[in-house]
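Homework help board

Subject: predicted structure for assignment chain

Our instructor gave us this sequence and asked us to write out the predicted structure in token form, then describe one feature. I got the tokens but I'm not sure how to describe them. Can anyone check?
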Amino acid sequence: MDILLEGIVIIVGNYGSGKTEISINLAVNRKLAGIDVSVADIDLVNPYFRAREARRQLAELGIGIILPPDKYLQADLPILTPAVAGLIRKPSRLTILDVGGDKVGATVLSALADALDGKSYRMLQVINPFRPFTDTVKGCMKMKNEIEKASRMSISGIIGNANLIDETTVDVIYEGYAFVSKVSGETGLPLEFITVSSRLSDKIDMKRFSCPVLELHRQLVPPWKKAAAL
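My token output:
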């Protein structure tokens, strides 16, 4: 199944949920499907793992990416450029906003309220069941409510990103899928897709899933590791 997302898609979630990794890989997935894609990096919370780290590969694939000015790329500063608002007003066929973690990161969306006014968008919550605060349905719903309150926007769908980084196994993927399916059922929010690491994709029984699967080619790695080719 293809991931049929278009328009403005806002990716939110708690720290370590995998928002930026998903934003990068989703952009590449849709670009390779022939869709015009742009990504805006508005993660103003985490100075280490941001979409800007993959900017060279994204640019080579023809994916537009909006970043702070070069002199601020390594700064942990609340920088929102006019280009972000401009992209929202005139979006690509798919425009992905990579937002910072938790309610603190989501607060930045309030600054874009005027640009988003009257625009159709989808805000998707990334859930990793193996992270603190989202390892229970109650925790996921609490996180959802906090993000919605901070951003003054409504979450409209779920992305399942079950992983333990290098310790992820096939069973972790299956267990995570069962969990986010339960969250989807209890919240009434659609499960848009789940993720599977490229190193496990040939070991997974895709027939077990009733939603699309996004294969992740890991980009945000420690300095001693090399990012996967997109």
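Reply (TA_rk): Your tokens look well-formed. For the description, you could write something like this. The chain has one domain: 7-216. That's the kind of observation they're looking for.
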